[in-house]
Amino acid sequence: MPEKTRSPLWLASALALALSAGSAIGAPSALEQADMPHWVLAQSSFQLEVTVLSIEEKPLTEQITNVWHRVRIDQVMVGDGLTVGEETAVVSQLRVNAPGTVGSSGDRGPFHGPNGLPLKGDRARLFASGSASTLKTLSPNGWQLAKPLLAFVAADDEYRSEITMPFLAGLVERAGIARTAVHFATGDDGRGSPLAEPDIAARTSLTSAWELRGADGSVLYMRFRELESNALNAFDEATNHGLPLVGFRTSTHAFRYSPGPGAGRWNEQFPREQFGTGWSFHHGHTSTTRILPPTGEAARHPVLAGVTIPAEGIIVPSWLYNVEPLAADCHVLLWGEAVDSERTDAPQRQPILWVREVARTRSATTTSGESNAFTLPPQRIAFSTLGHPGDFANAEVRLMAVQMCAWAMRAEAAMTEAARAAVRAAVFDAPGTR
How far apart are CA 434 and CA 430, in angstroms? Predict the structure, then answer.
């Protein structure tokens, strides 16, 4: 598949600032350090899944203790010189803050050891710098749970994403693809904080919006949002910096800001840069769509593994969206055909499912002072214009949607025959649209 290198929508200097927040081994700190957003972790020199074999604490000063983890390498996502099954050392730090200071410092994670560091026997993902023989945890939150987090954003007011996205998230989690969290549409308090309760009619925020910074990938079902700056910044860090991304239907028009500085970036540039197309028109609310069977290479793609579409196709409630032309690197997996179109003057066949792989190169600035840039695994993006609630009542559409998430997260191995059978057997009582 053709690849291209994309610059993020926001200034790349954010990466350098975030990476420079890390500290060298032995450097004291009396201030709490904010967690790295996951797009920064995903640009580290070493990205591994490991099992902790042993732990040793080595005090450096009264305030600083180095914690050495001996680990077995279970998977290498990024990193030269390391092999699955080998052992290596990882050094993290515990620090005692000076009297009168606030907060914690040192490396930390979501485990049960000191400062949330892993304990013997824990499986973890590790984001690190250093060398193959001695890794240094990317500070402060380079230790992460072994299972990645996939964030679902349910923020449309027409297609009932507040029902369909939690349903899809449950299928993804039960398949073992990822942990999941769902962020719903809500308002804000006027000071940049989201309200706790979902509000389908609100457009300015998302529930627990700031937690998007900790997502390893995102699934979007959005329509005409006007996120305030704090929520928008968190959304940007989750979606515009090379992490896995999946989108459905109205996410081609996720934003509708009033004309002014920056509006075009989100109204038009975001969907075109991420999904390869923007909003154009559809074939009318009285029409439906026939999903045509895949052919050739598309039929063998992991997103469609085990998906059965008969020669006559499958008719689903979604009215067909016009999306052509797509970006050159979009690989179309499924085409749809309008049934009883209200737009007989328009093309009656359109792509309804496509994927992209976008090349990524790490920034040259790192916490350990490395100056070399290197190629990272490409970002995976999947998009479908399907997404009417009635579409998810179809077992083949459900399976396709789950496997979009699995492919984007590089978790295709989770989709065993048993996992596919469970997705097909799931019961979904589709609500009507608004």
Answer: 12
Confidence band, pLDDT 50/70/90 cuts, at residue 361:
confident
Domain that holds residue 133: 13-145
Q: Rounded to an integer, what distance in angstroms lies between the CA atom of residue 309 and that of residue 91?
A: 52
| Percentage, residues of the chain above pLDDT 90 | 82
CB-neighbour burial class of residue 278 (10 A; exposed 0-12, middle 13-18, buried 19+): middle
Residue type, 344: T
Structure tokens at 304: 């469609």
Measure Cα distances from 423 to 316, 333, 418, 428 in Å. 18, 20, 9, 11
Q: Is 74 within 8 Å of 87 (Cβ atoms)?
A: no
The enclosing H or E element of 423 equals helix 417-425
Mean pLDDT of the chain: 90
**Helix, coil or strand: residue 39:** helix
Residue 430, in any domain of the structure = no
**Domain end residue (candidates: 145, 180, 206):** 145
303 lies in some domain: yes
Same domain, 72 and 199: no
Q: Is the dihedral of CA 134, 139, 144, 150 positive or negative?
A: negative
- Same domain flag for 366 and 354: yes
Q: What is the mean pLDDT of residues 198-202?
A: 95
In a 10 Å sphere around its CB, with 0-12 CB exposed, 13-18 middle and 19+ buried, how is residue 155 labelled? buried
Quick one: which of 179, 156, 157 has its CA closest to 169?
Answer: 179
Indicate the burial class of 1 (C-beta count within 10 angstroms; 0-12, 13-18, 19 or more).
Answer: exposed
Token pair for residue 312? Answer: 């006559």
In this predicted model, what pLDDT tens digit does every residue of 106-162 receive, in sequence order? 899 999 999 999 999 999 999 999 999 999 999 999 999 999 999 999 999 999 999
pLDDT band at 4 (very low <50, low <70, confident <90, very high): very low
Question: pLDDT tens, 58-111?
Answer: 999 888 999 999 999 999 999 999 999 999 999 999 988 776 665 557 899 999
Residue tagged 């995976």 (tokens) = 380
